[in-house]
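Hi support team,

I've been running sequence recovery on a batch of backbones for a student project. Most finish fine, but this one hangs at about 90% for roughly twenty minutes before it completes. I'm not sure whether the input is malformed or the queue is just slow. I've pasted the structure tokens below so you can try to reproduce it. Let me know if you need the job ID as well.

Thanks,
M.K.
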């Protein structure tokens, strides 16, 4: 099946090159590239590593750059980096020479990228926010672009582009539309909750799994009224083949809608059986359960969800987990979906049982480790139904430089390497938790010396198999972002982009976007304010 390539942690183009074809490298969202042979803790140092190229692009880079190693374009073989911007452009650059291989605009005739919808979270324009996904075998790149026409109508479209030319492929693009039967908080039309292209934004990374492309949706800021959607399409035809709404029935206990999929640019994950996992935001959760423990109104606010592969146009909820105090957390905007969900490689517990686990965290400072074979559902008494609730994993931060003291919520995705799970919470140091007998320790095994202010540091891992592992993190700033490299085993800093003065400056770091590491390069997108005359760049770091 053509979509199967997206399930591999790293797809090798040749013995010397590797691909990064989806957010955080694989459909489990581990964030690790285990085929990096060039960059090591001994050579990622200020004297021999830094910015090789700053490539100007036409808008903010909020999507993670994607990479293909040794890919043929116009009869020549290139290591290619693909970059999408909020100006609705997609670029293909030679990752070594920085030459532009192609550039396309996804704005239809008579349209522009969307305005910011009165929201400063993505500004001054909204085009492509979510990380695209690549199918190398099929020669396709899939991306969602938002635009506005001359009559003031907004459009969300799914595009399939040629990896070689950027041209639209067969059946592309398609307008994203949806409706489901419901009486929920958003306005309904004849008993239907209708997807409004101007109301929603695709922030969560696209997922390609077993021939289906998954898009997931949230609001611009908290502009009422909205709910949570996952809308899926067949890869080969771009026909909508499944639809899920997580709040079809309305409000209970004073709760309102809003159980959308923010995820700070992370995306849904998938296992080898085709099941899809997602974390929803604060909103309606039906505390009245059915006999088998599911919400009576099918409202799943503030939950970890396990969904089936598409069946008869739907995505069925196979299992779920939500915390015992979910109603209170939703009422206080303490949502789970500020973070991203990661599926762990198989772990063996103290009894010799192989566990299939997932890990997620949001604003409540807890880490929830759940068993994918039995997520735990809802227990009004406590969180014991979770496989391992690690409470207060991120204590209130004290860093005055970050405006502390304050709560250390998670606004991003964890990464994994060699049995360790790493988190960067807002205002907190990076914390690494080494798994033992399929459990996280109550305290971190390693910590970085430096804290990262809101929203924390987007991270990625590079390693050569089990060796030479580096944790990479981007420090967000309105003036100058900073790329950091740490020894993954100790979280001792190896390099940061301020060490050589102005030599390695690249502009403001993207708020939620992790760096991409492949083939001896590190790719970092920027968020300069074009309305103030600033430039947006793709920064390429590597050996000097």
């Amino acid at each position: 099946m053509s979509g199967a390539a997206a399930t591999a942690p790293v797809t090798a183009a040749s013995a010397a090159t590797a691909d990064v074809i989806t957010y955080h490298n694989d459909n489990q969202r581990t964030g690790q590239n285990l085929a990096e042979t060039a960059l090591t803790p001994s050579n990622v140092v200020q004297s021999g590593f830094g910015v090789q190229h700053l490539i100007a692009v036409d808008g903010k880079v909020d999507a993670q750059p994607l990479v293909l190693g040794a890919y043929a374009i116009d009869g020549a073989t290139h290591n290619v980096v693909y970059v999408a911007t909020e100006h609705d452009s997609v670029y293909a650059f030679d990752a070594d020479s920085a030459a532009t291989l192609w550039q396309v605009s996804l704005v239809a005739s008579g349209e522009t990228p969307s305005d910011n919808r009165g929201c400063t979270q993505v500004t001054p324009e909204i085009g492509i926010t979510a990380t695209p996904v690549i199918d190398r075998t099929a020669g396709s790149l899939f991306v969602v672009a938002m635009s506005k026409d001359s009559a003031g109508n907004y459009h969300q479209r799914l595009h399939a582009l040629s990896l070689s030319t950027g041209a639209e492929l067969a059946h592309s693009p398609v307008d994203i539309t949806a409706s489901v039967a419901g009486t929920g908080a958003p306005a309904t039309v004849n008993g239907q909750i209708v997807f409004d292209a101007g109301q929603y934004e695709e922030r969560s990374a696209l997922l390609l799994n077993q021939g289906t492309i998954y898009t997931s949706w949230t609001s611009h800021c908290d502009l009422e009224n909205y709910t949570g959607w996952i809308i899926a399409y067949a890869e080969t035809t771009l026909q909508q083949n499944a639809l899920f709404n997580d709040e079809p029935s309305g409000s209970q206990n004073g709760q309102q809608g809003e159980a959308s999929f923010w995820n700070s640019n992370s995306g849904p994950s998938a296992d080898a059986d085709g099941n899809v996992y997602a974390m929803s935001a604060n909103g309606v959760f039906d505390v009245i359960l059915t006999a088998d423990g599911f919400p009576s109104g099918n409202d799943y606010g503030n939950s970890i969800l396990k969904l089936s592969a598409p069946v008869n146009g739907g995505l069925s909820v196979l299992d779920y987990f939500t915390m015992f105090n979910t109603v209170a957390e939703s009422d206080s905007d303490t949502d789970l979906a500020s973070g991203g969900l990661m599926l762990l490689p198989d772990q063996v517990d103290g009894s010799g049982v192989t566990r299939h686990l997932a890990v997620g965290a949001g604003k409540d400072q807890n880490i929830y480790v759940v068993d994918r074979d039995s997520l735990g559902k809802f227990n009004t008494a406590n969180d014991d139904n979770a496989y391992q609730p690690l409470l207060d994993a991120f204590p209130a931060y004290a860093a005055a430089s970050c405006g502390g003291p304050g709560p250390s919520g998670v606004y991003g995705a964890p990464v994994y390497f060699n049995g360790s799970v790493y988190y960067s919470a807002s205002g907190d140091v990076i914390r690494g938790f080494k798994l033992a007998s399929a459990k996280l320790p109550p305290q971190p095994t390693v910590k970085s010396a430096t804290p990262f202010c809101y929203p924390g540091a987007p991270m990625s891992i590079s390693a050569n198999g089990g060796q030479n592992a580096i944790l990479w993190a981007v420090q967000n700033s309105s003036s100058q972002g900073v790329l950091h490299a740490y020894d993954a085993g100790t979280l001792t800093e190896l390099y940061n982009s301020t060490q050589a003065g102005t030599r390695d400056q690249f502009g403001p770091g993207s708020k939620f976007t992790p760096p991409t590491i492949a083939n001896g390069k590190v790719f970092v997108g920027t968020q300069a304010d074009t309305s103030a005359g600033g430039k947006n760049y793709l920064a390429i770091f590597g050996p000097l």
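--
Follow-up from support: It reproduced on our side and the slowdown came from queue contention, not your input. The domain at 2-31+39-543 is CATH 2.140.10.10 (Methanol Dehydrogenase; Chain A). No action needed from you.
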